[in-house]
């Protein structure tokens, strides 16, 4: 028996902090549901021809967020997708509204300790390139957690769990609508 919300929306959107597993879980979920997987960060990189770090360097975070919002505005128009968003996508009110209106939003909640462990060996996250990583992750979590929760149809705790179990939990709450024949 499934408890909690069950959705009839056609898309699944994963939000949450860096290191929560949005890309890994999203790929597994898309494969299991036979849906297209899209990572909004990779989409921005494909559209610009440069990596996110370069965009941050040349345009700052505000420039990147504008590009991210434009990509999200287009991506939510598709049907049958699992979309993994960047950790800061929720900072834009328009992006939050689009995600909430067009899909089943899943907040992959990860503790700061979990995020720290998952991002310790990476150098491709511009927001973690300055200052103390723990302090940065804690500041971002404090700022963004209420925004993730604001649009979430489902909150899934990721600490100590593998992608398969997380995808299964999300699937239990997502029921893809069946097309009705035209009369």
How many strands?
5
Give the integer mean of the pLDDT values: 85
**Straight-line N-to-C gap:** 33 Å
**Helical segment tally?**
7
User: What is the CATH topology?
Assistant: Rossmann fold
Oligomer kind: single chain
Question: Uncertain spans, ≥5 residues at pLDDT below 50?
Answer: 177-181
Please identify, by name, the CATH architecture: 3-Layer(aba) Sandwich
Domain module count: 1
Q: Please give the radius of gyration in angstroms.
A: 16 Å
Strand content: 5-15%
Show the helix and strand layout:
Layout: E1 12-15, H1 22-33, E2 36-39, H2 40-48, H3 52-75, E3 81-84, H4 93-102, E4 104-109, H5 112-119, H6 133-151, E5 154-157, H7 163-173
Helix pairs in contact: 1-7, 2-3, 5-6
Description:
The protein is 51% helix and 12% strand. The protein is globular. The protein has 183 residues and is an alpha/beta fold. It has a single domain, classed as P-loop containing nucleotide triphosphate hydrolases (Rossmann fold). It has seven helices and five strands; from the N terminus they run βαβααβαβααβα.
């Amino acid at each position: 028996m499934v408890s909690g919300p069950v959705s009839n929306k056609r898309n699944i959107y994963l939000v949450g902090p860096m290191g929560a597993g949005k890309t890994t879980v999203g790929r597994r979920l898309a494969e299991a549901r036979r849906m297209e997987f899209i990572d909004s960060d990779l989409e921005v990189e494909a559209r610009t021809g440069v990596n996110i770090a370069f965009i941050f360097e040349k345009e700052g975070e505000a420039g990147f967020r504008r590009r991210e919002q434009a990509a999200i505005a287009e991506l939510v128009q598709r049907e049958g997708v699992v979309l993994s968003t960047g950790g800061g996508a929720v900072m834009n009110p328009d992006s939050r509204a689009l995600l909430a209106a067009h899909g089943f939003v899943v907040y992959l909640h990860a503790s700061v300790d979990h995020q720290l462990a998952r991002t310790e060996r990476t150098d491709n996250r511009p927001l973690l390139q300055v200052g103390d990583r723990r302090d940065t992750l804690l500041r971002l979590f404090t700022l963004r957690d209420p925004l993730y929760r604001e649009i979430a149809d489902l909150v899934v705790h990721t600490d100590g769990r593998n992608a398969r179990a997380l995808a299964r939990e999300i699937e239990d709450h997502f029921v893809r609508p069946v097309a009705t024949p035209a009369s």
